[in-house]
Every structure is written in structure tokens, then in C-alpha cells.
Design brief:
- The structure is a homodimer.
- Chain A has helices spanning about 10-15, 35-45, 45-50, 55-65, 80-85, 105-110, 120-135, 150-155, 165-175, 175-200, 215-235, 255-260, 275-280, 300-315, 335-345, and strands spanning about 70-75, 90, 95-100, 140-145, 205-210, 235-240, 240, 245-250, 265-270, 285-290, 320-325.
- The two termini of chain A are about 40 Å apart.
- With about 350 residues, chain A is an alpha/beta fold.
- Chains A and B meet through helix 9, helix 11 and helix 14 of A and helix 9, helix 11 and helix 14 of B.
């Protein structure tokens, strides 16, 4: 393998000094980019884009051609695992993901088996290999998966939801069955992420989009414990390098101490938590990633620079910060505003 | 005025001892009740139900006929104020509230004036008077309004949103205009709540449904400061009694200390914060209201009793707790499960 030319992300996640704070953007390969929309139109539908390694590679590289980002992230979707389990994933315009065969009974859940990442999810590891080759060591590649709880919500609800009525009813009425579902998802995600590492992913991230809708006790039981199990089962060394893992629970600001105690290298912080507070609370146990409000990118360049500076200053001096948005970039953002943000991060001098 | 027979709510909000923890339910008059659905069907549409005092009174009293609740809450909607300002409120099935004329420019915002609660919102104060008469002192009546930030989000977005793109773009690109909007809403909400007090509301609640989508600095500036101004402008004494005010920011668990410092009597807590932690953080400055996860009501009676006990025990002994859900009741809840919850609260003996 070729030598990595930009190791800022990996150094920051190891809390080692860096010349500039590394920056990447959640959903940096996405609809706000006209070149992405063109590739997606060529693909026809979203799942074809995800499941065709050449196309997934193409859109993964698009933001790197525009902006001097410090990492690439595999273009894929968190719902590839349940799709590979046979639930039939479709993306409905304006509605988000929909499963044709959501889980409706204990017997369906007990029949689930972890997909083989080298067979049912081969298109993902093929994409990882192709992207690594194309990156040619310029920046590290981040692999990712959804958290078991987050995957379970979609699998049981059948799609997006505001109330999480079905999955929470399951949690309160039949916790054993929910445990069974989460267990098979822990195995699935662990194998899937390890396969991404084998294929070339140099860092990993687990997206827990919906842990924040739980009670404190529910979060620990249904979302955090499964993620801890995954972290314990991941390959953390590959090609002679540490493979760091980042956990990100949207709305998890009240539970940072617990997230930092999982054994993860980094913790993603959404914009509702001040980074200075977060750092004070987790100490030097983990690196922190975040946390600009994605809506700041609607503002004019001067205001974007001001808000970027506030985020960098709130983290303060010393190692262990990966700059990012606090959640995914919105689709109507002007790409030039992303350029301003990246430049503001890289040109920042801490006081 | 007749003597109040059940003053548990008012005593708990004043952090005075009570024989049993008072309980009421956010959206206790709502779609989960068949009698509500019948009245709503008779009304034709939701706004007719809100704006016809006899019908609003009827549905306000329905849950009290079923359950031994310790308070009534005016049946209305948080969006009556912007509707009275001329934005044209409609409720679209499955989509929620929609404004026919959302705010799209600074000049539209500068033209807004606080509605006169005795004219444009007369139907609300009429409903309050009628409900007070019908309650005949059995339990206190809670009046309410939406927070300025929450109202502003709907007025600028034009309806429900997940990204809050327009209102946040306004906050970052033209903060002066957002301030102007919030200023007129502070005046409007203050007058509206004071008119409810004059008409007979014995406690007040401000619902800040969307403060939790802001950054810590944004929350203080755009959501909390306007609420603090309102609290300072409210009549806190009427008919010789204290009129307590409760602030509830959904997703505000990280900012409880700040909310408790506004001068409010009570703070609503959603289910993502442990009540024991909340109490430790706010001390004896305010009463706390909450915080059962509304999804617990999908469970069987035994499990509901267990979870109710956990909430009561997490608050612990001593005065200052009003039991409630952590957010509004879901529409598919079995009313018998609400009966179990209310009974579990009232029969609880703290250790």
C-alpha cells in the first residue's frame, strides 16, 4: 500500500499534534453538489448508486476534487445491512427510506442472520477497494455503519418516523425480542466494519442517528451497550496502523461521559453541545469531532468564518479535534460556502 | 369565584407538601380519546374546534370525566397567535399545521402587530371563562402559549420542518429581523397569557417545542431570552392567588440551569433527562414537571406501573414534582393505559 500523505485525521483521532485541525463533512458526497446530482441521475436510483462500486467511488471522490478535505468517507447508506438481510430497501422521493418487508413479529426477527460482507455486501467492500486505489494515499478513507439501535428503528418502523411508536412499544412490551434483534445487528455491523477495514478503510464511524430519542436508561441499554460490543469486536490495527473508531449519537449530548467510556477513539458531537463543555466532561479519553450547526452554511462567508472560529476556539488549544458539521450537510447549501468553511478551518491560528 | 377543591398542582409548583403527587397529561384532551374524535368530527375541522368556546370547553373537560387528573388544560393550539396575526392557519391531514401566508420578507415582519386578546383571540378567553365555570373549582385550569422561537419557526418555515433551514438561515444572515419578529411575539404572548389569567387561568405553561434544535448560544439568544422577558411581564397574582408559570423546552436537558434561572416556577423535563439529575442541577429554585416517556403507555399495565414508579423515585421525596409525560401523548394510546398511569401516580408511597 502507498504511504498516506495526509494523516491529520488519524493523528487528531489519536490526540497527537497536527499542523492544522483536520476537517471533513458529514454527507460531503451528496445532493448539494451538482456533480453528485448528475451522477445520481445517471445511476437512476439511489440504491443503484450505492451498489455500483464505480459510481460509489466516483461520488466519494467528488468533494475531494473541490475542497482540500482531510478525509474521504465511503459513499453508501446506513441501511445496506437490513437490505442485505432481505427487508427490501427503497428510497421514496420526499419520504426517505422505506422497507418493503419491515419486521412485524418475533419469528421474523429470530430468523434474521448476519449478512456475509463478502457476498451480500460485496459491492461495499469492492467500493472501498476501488476508492482506496483511486485515493492513492492522498487522504484516509473512513468506513461506516449505522448503530444497531438506529438500524432496528428503521427495520421495525418500516421507514422514517417521528414517534418511534413501534420500536419503543417493542422495547417496553417485549424487550427479549428487541435484544435478539440488536444481537444479530451487533454481529452484522461488527463483521461489516471489519470487512471494510480488510478492504482498506483506515478509520471507522458508527452513526447513531436515533439514540437521542431514548430515556437515559434506554439509551444505555438499547443503543450504547450494542455499540460498545461492536467497538470491542473491531479490528483496531491493519496494515501496521491503528484504525480509529468514532461514535456519533445525534442528541447524545447528555451522555458524553458514557459514550467516551466505550473504548472508542473519537466521539461525534452535535451542535447542541458546546465543545468546551464536552471536552471538560470527557477529558483526554477521546478525540472530539464536530460541531458546526449545518445551518451556518446558509450564512454569508464572513459569518461562516466567525462561526467556524467559535467552534475551533470552543475546543481550544491542544490535540484531539476533528472539525465537522454537527450533523449532515443540507441539500440546498451553496458548495462555495463549504469551501469558505474548509478554508476557515485550515487557516485558523489558535491563540 | 368558588374555592379550589384540588390544589395539588399549585402547591407542587410552589414546592409545598402535597398528599399525592399531582398528575396531568400533555395533550390530555386529544385524539387518543374516542369522545374527542367524536367532538372533532362534529366540529368538522380542527380550527373550528379551537375557535368555538363551547366545543373547546367540551373537549377540555373530557379527560377529567375519565381520569382523576389534578389539572385541566385549556384546549387550544400554540399557533392561535400567528393565525390572529393574519398568517392563515390550516391543518392538513398527515402534514400538521400549514400557514397560507408564511413570512418571507423583513417588510412583512415589520408590519406585524400583537393581536388584541380581547378581540382577535376573544374565542380563547371566552373558552377559558366557560371552562372555569364548568370546572366549578374541582381542579385548576392551566392556560398556555407557544414560545416566541417556536412560533417564529412555524411562521417562517410555513409549517412543520426537520431542518429549520429558513428560520436558521434568517438567524445567521439577518439576526436583526429575527429579533424584530421575536420582539413582537414576546409582546403578543405576554398579552395573550395575561388575558388568559384575567379570564381565569390559574397556572400558565409556555411550550418551547423547538428550542432544542439550536446551539447553546442560539438557544439563549433566540429561545430563552424571549421566554425570560415574557415571564417578567406576566401577572403572577390573580384573585389573591399566585399564578405559577412552567417553561418547557423539548430537548432542553442540557440547559436546565439556565431555564431554572428565568424566574419561572416550574420547568418541564422531557424523558431524555433523568429527574434525579435534573433536581440535583436546579436545586430548590423551581418545581419539575415530567417525565415519563410517552411510549411507555404502549406497554402492559404492570410495566406502566413499574415505569411510573421509576419516574417518581427518580424525583425522590420532598415537594416540587408535577407528574406528566415527557411530551404529548401519542394518538394510538389506549385510554385505559392512561387510567393505569394516573392510578399508579396517586397510589405511590415514596420510601
Amino acid at each position: 500500500m502507498v504511504e498516506l500523505q495526509n494523516d491529520r485525521l488519524l493523528r487528531a483521532l489519536a490526540r497527537q499534534p497536527v499542523d492544522r485541525t483536520p476537517v471533513w463533512v458529514m454527507r460531503q458526497a451528496g445532493r448539494y453538489l451538482p456533480e453528485y446530482r448528475a451522477t445520481r441521475a445517471r445511476a437512476g436510483d439511489f440504491m443503484t448508486l450505492c451498489s455500483t462500486p464505480e459510481l460509489a467511488c466516483e461520488v466519494t471522490l467528488q468533494p475531494l476534487a473541490r475542497f482540500p478535505l482531510d478525509a474521504a468517507i465511503l459513499f453508501s447508506d446506513i441501511l445496506t445491512i437490513p437490505d442485505a438481510m432481505g427487508l427490501g430497501l427503497r428510497f421514496v422521493e420526499g419520504e426517505g427510506p422505506v422497507f418493503e418487508r419491515p419486521l412485524t413479529s418475533r419469528s421474523e426477527i429470530l430468523k434474521l442472520a448476519p449478512p456475509d460482507p463478502d457476498i451480500e455486501l460485496r459491492y461495499v467492500t469492492d467500493a472501498v477497494r476501488l476508492i482506496r486505489k483511486e485515493l492513492a494515499g492522498s487522504v484516509p478513507l473512513i468506513g461506516f455503519a449505522g448503530s444497531p439501535w438506529t438500524l432496528a428503528t428503521y427495520m421495525v418502523e418500516g421507514g422514517s418516523t417521528r414517534e418511534f411508536a413501534k420500536i419503543k412499544a417493542l422495547a417496553y412490551t417485549d424487550p427479549g425480542t428487541l435484544h435478539a434483534l440488536l444481537d444479530v445487528l451487533v454481529k452484522s455491523v461488527t463483521r461489516y466494519l471489519n470487512a471494510q477495514v480488510e478492504a482498506g478503510a483506515q478509520a471507522l464511524m458508527i452513526f447513531d442517528s436515533w439514540g437521542g430519542v431514548l430515556t437515559p436508561a434506554g439509551y444505555k441499554r438499547w443503543s450504547l451497550d450494542p455499540m460498545r460490543e461492536i467497538v470491542a469486536g473491531l479490528k483496531r490495527e491493519h496494515e501496521g496502523h491503528r484504525v480509529p473508531v468514532i461514535l456519533f449519537t445525534k442528541g447524545g449530548g447528555q451522555w458524553l461521559e458514557d459514550i467516551a467510556a466505550t473504548g472508542a477513539d473519537g466521539v461525534g458531537i452535535d451542535w447542541t453541545t458546546d465543545l468546551a463543555d464536552a471536552r471538560r466532561r470527557v477529558g483526554d479519553r477521546v478525540a472530539l469531532q464536530g460541531n458546526l450547526d449545518p445551518s451556518v452554511l446558509y450564512a454569508e462567508p464572513d459569518e461562516i468564518r466567525t462561526e467556524v472560529r467559535k467552534v475551533l476556539d470552543s475546543f481550544g488549544p491542544g490535540p484531539g479535534h476533528v472539525f465537522n458539521l454537527g450533523h449532515g450537510i443540507h441539500q440546498h447549501i451553496d458548495p462555495d460556502h463549504v469551501a469558505v468553511m474548509v478554508d476557515a478551518v485550515h487557516s485558523h491560528q489558535s491563540d
